[in-house]
Design goal:
28% strand, 387 residues, homodimer, alpha+beta, nine-stranded antiparallel β-sheet
């Protein structure tokens, strides 16, 4: 029995996003069922844990059979299985149709273009046809271009920023297979993110715009902060574009819209994740309603929660170091816990791997500059080391 | 495996305080073992759940055998069993010696008196000797006096405010057994609470003073808020007295110190709870470090966290109505979720009972007055009703 909330939620995926989703709703005793590999971060919090692959149709159906509502915390899952369940009447949020669009970065780009939403200029092609498409590639501007797999990329994998003269079948066919996207690169710009929440009735709210600072060596977010250092006009425009995109997807659920801002103050929509996102972790400590609770509210058809920030905030990912795989320990977390306003989240992953997201921390401070300085000091002390 | 924290915590008691204690540390993957009756609110979050009575020595030992550290979330437990475990080297926080003092309200009063801490004038006696002690009772001032059981009282039970002429063996021996405490009543005053956290090294922090508003019909806290509406001098004096009491208890752990403030601005220490407390629920939403996380930090010998409030806050208990026992449902929680800054905690109790604490909610608002108004509006809509 789980009162006042009787409905159970099934999550396809039990990684850190699933873990924090479950944590956000324990105050309401929401029951979660989870499908993922054994030892996944969220596994121990599941009412029913279903061990299996996220692309195993039978396991997805098993999850649905014990859950009133299905959501997912990762895009690389079997969307066709969800589509079938949806046709059979299961509540799946966001809808599998949206997932099918988003799983393919080519389809995403076409969708933005058709809607007239600003996005960088691009071409779609098969990696084997690169050398035949020289002319189209010539029409893209800039010394460097971005090459992306249309499907399967994740956490900086399947994305390459490359000098235009190095773009050839010879250079790219080892790293990329099948359909790819080549697009213009926004140089000297900023990367922004807007989390959009939209419910069944079409009510929509956004979180304050987040500014992400990338570590080029890892092609991963190094740290991010909110509010973004952008003008009021850009803040509003970023929110407007993001809402527009989610509305036209007919999106119900939580969506992270990533955007570029170039040095001429032009915004470009980059891509959308139809789930809680790394760029919304900070909402746990800095907002009345976290992105995770917000999604639970939408799943349960409850009113949307307030999204305002009560403090400037920095979020830093804690990443598995390049030289270490397997067993590990964390050091420096006691230094972190000494900093007023700092909070640690650890994902309970059994093994570290180079570049793997192992945890994150947030720092709240009424001065954003101080929060960033404190985050850097903490980052210098936190280390994942061999046991 | 639970990284970065390898130690497990055993909690004697799995009620709402235990539940929120566990929830506070899931971001760190702390493992908790819990002893309580089947169906207790925290049961489903336990790594090892031990079903049994909180006064069953064997079950307490079983809990200790699987836990690195022991704490408790209720005072009515077997302190002698903990004392023995402590002598055998088990880390028990707060210490069983403190629990033995606090379990007996007579010993508590003597302790404050010996320390010279302000407390209301009182006498200790056996309920059967009331009529023989008329003269001592005469020396206590006021039209009304407070009668308390020395042991076993909880949540307003075992406490009676009574006209002095009604104090007689005949009137009281039905309701009270054994040793009782009769003390002066602070009329037209305020009830305050200070949560004190003190670690092994003697570092001590307090949370901002809370003001509690009682519902006299239930003898339970109706709502409370922070910061308290008291002068800076009273705020500091309340914190000083509370720290003094905890230091002299040699207290390590989390302590809720309840105080009265009379209309002449005199403070009196009432009693101490050696555990997370109803008057600290609001710290989950309103402080960087909640009272629950603070206790986990102390248990794990981590640095104390920052205790400042980032917003005025109101907390309201949701109490089982007088006419209903057994199965129930909650209505009105969707209205609550519409209020920006309002958060609901539900304790997952299988049955409601008259006066039982079933849940609570907090409201944050930059205006304390508005937060109180909003809390009242929510309270009017939330109802526990038959299924």
């Amino acid at each position: 029995m789980s009162k006042p909330i009787e409905k159970s939620i099934g999550i396809v995926g039990g990684g850190q996003l699933g873990k924090m989703l479950v944590e956000s709703a324990q105050k309401w005793n929401v029951r979660f069922n989870i499908l993922d590999a054994k030892g996944s971060p969220a596994a121990r919090y599941a009412e029913a844990f279903i061990e299996g692959s996220l692309t195993d149709v039978d396991r997805i159906k098993e999850l649905a059979s014990v859950s009133d509502i299905i959501t997912y915390e990762i895009e690389h899952i079997d969307a066709e299985a969800l589509l079938q369940l949806s046709k059979e009447g299961k509540r799946i949020v966001p809808s599998p149709e949206i997932l099918l669009t988003i799983q393919d970065k080519g389809k995403q780009k076409d969708f933005y273009k058709e809607l007239g939403l600003p996005t960088t200029k691009y071409i779609l092609l098969d990696v084997n046809d690169i050398d035949l498409r020289k002319e189209d590639i010539e029409k893209l501007s800039g010394n460097r271009l971005v090459v992306k797999s249309c499907t399967g990329g994740y956490d900086g994998k399947g994305v390459l920023i490359i000098e235009r003269e190095l773009i050839s079948k010879k250079h790219l066919s080892a790293q990329f297979k099948g359909r790819i996207l080549i697009e213009e690169c926004v140089e000297n710009g900023k990367e922004l993110s807007v989390i959009v929440a939209r419910d069944d009735a079409g009510h929509v709210v956004t979180y304050p715009v987040v500014e992400m600072v990338f570590d080029p060596s890892k092609n991963l977010v190094d740290y991010l902060f909110a509010p973004a250092r952008v003008s009021k006009i850009i803040e509003e425009e970023a929110r407007r574009i993001s809402i527009e995109a989610v509305k036209h997807l007919d999106g119900v659920g939580l969506f992270a819209v990533e955007l570029f801002l170039d040095d001429q103050e032009n915004l470009f929509i980059n891509e959308i994740a139809p789930r809680p996102h790394n760029s919304g972790h900070h909402t746990i400590e800095a907002c009345n309603t976290s992105q995770y609770e917000q999604l639970v509210r939408i799943l349960l058809e409850y009113p949307l929660g307030n999204t305002s920030l009560h403090s400037p905030v920095v979020m830093t990912n804690i990443i598995g170091p390049p030289e270490l795989s397997g067993d590990y320990k964390l050091i420096g977390h006691e230094d972190l816990l000494k900093v007023p306003g700092a909070s640690l989240h650890w994902y309970n992953k059994i093994e570290t791997r180079p570049g793997r997201k192992m945890g994150h921390f947030t720092v709240l401070n009424s001065s954003l500059e101080k929060a960033i300085d404190q985050a850097h000091l903490i980052q210098d002390k936190l280390k994942i080391v061999p046991v």
